[in-house]
């Protein structure tokens, strides 16, 4: 099974992905946790290039292609082999992030970005996407707690993040059977319980 966590920056994806992985491991499953961009040596280098400040100008199309290149390596080198071994794969972000951030936030077109990533991943799609919905203001408050620095995308204005949120919710509304949408402001334990219940219901 391939499970993806999506949502705006500061939604708590990494926390919930780790909690789910721990719960599944306690049930005896072999779990691979990974993230995007990243997950492979080339993906981690591309992550630094596209997210860190001071890398020079990166226009919207270039940014989109960098994410797609990292995802192509991720799908081929990490996700597919793990699924073939019978493992459960949990990824912090996947294709929907590009559709939302570059397709919606950068206004490149959601369908165009989705089609590019379908080609990049050779049609590999998650069995379940957990969308943690966060308001832009809440996400920024979480990201900047303890004076934490924001990366290139996190530091975009709230209008950018509002467009991202809209796209995520539109994607989930279009295929509700493939998504679990939860408000990120709910208590961590409550979110974890609901996520784990949904995943257990899908396990063979």
Describe this structure in words.
- This protein is α/β, with parallel strands linked by helices and 204 residues long.
- The chain has one domain: Rossmann fold.
- It is 55% helix and 13% strand.
- It is built from 8 helices and 5 strands, in the order βαβααβααβααβα.
- The chain has a 5-stranded parallel β-sheet with strand order 2-3-1-4-5, sandwiched between helices.
Topology summary:
Blueprint: E1 2-7, H1 13-26, E2 31-35, H2 41-51, H3 60-84, E3 88-92, H4 95-105, H5 110-120, E4 128-133, H6 136-143, H7 158-174, E5 179-183, H8 188-202
Parallel strand pairs: 1-3, 1-4, 2-3, 4-5
Helix pairs in contact: 1-8, 2-3, 3-5, 4-5, 4-7
Throw out a few tags for this protein:
204 residues; Rossmann fold; 55% helix
Poorly predicted runs are none
Q: How large a portion of the residues is in β-strands, by DSSP E?
A: 5-15%
CATH superfamily: P-loop containing nucleotide triphosphate hydrolases
Extended strand count? 5
Major pleated sheet? 5 strands, parallel
Shape call: globular
The number of helices is: 8
Q: Give the second-level CATH assignment, the architecture.
A: 3-Layer(aba) Sandwich
Q: What is the CATH C-level name?
A: Alpha Beta
Distance between the termini: 10 Å
| Structure classification | alpha/beta
Order of helices and strands: EHEHHEHHEHHEH
What's the quick description here?
It is built from 8 helices and 5 strands. By secondary structure, it is α/β, with parallel strands linked by helices.
């Amino acid at each position: 099974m391939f499970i993806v966590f999506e949502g705006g920056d500061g939604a708590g994806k990494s926390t919930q992905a780790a909690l789910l992985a721990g719960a599944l491991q306690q049930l005896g499953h072999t779990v691979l946790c990974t993230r995007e961009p990243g997950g492979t040596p080339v993906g981690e280098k591309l992550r630094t290039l596209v997210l860190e400040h001071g890398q020079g100008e990166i226009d919207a199309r270039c940014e989109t292609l960098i994410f797609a290149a990292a995802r192509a390596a991720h799908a081929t080198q990490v996700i597919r082999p793990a699924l073939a071994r019978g493992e459960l794969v949990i990824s912090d972000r996947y294709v929907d992030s590009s559709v939302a951030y570059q397709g919606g936030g950068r206004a490149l077109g959601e369908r165009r970005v989705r089609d590019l990533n379908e080609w990049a991943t050779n049609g590999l799609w998650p069995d379940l996407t957990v969308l943690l919905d966060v308001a832009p203001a809440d996400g920024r408050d979480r990201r900047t707690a303890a004076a934490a620095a924001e990366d290139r995308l996190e530091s975009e204005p709230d209008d950018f993040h509002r467009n991202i949120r809209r796209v995520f919710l539109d994607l989930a509304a279009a295929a509700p059977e493939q998504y679990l949408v939860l408000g990120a402001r709910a208590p961590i334990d409550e979110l974890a319980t609901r996520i784990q219940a949904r995943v257990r219901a899908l396990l063979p």
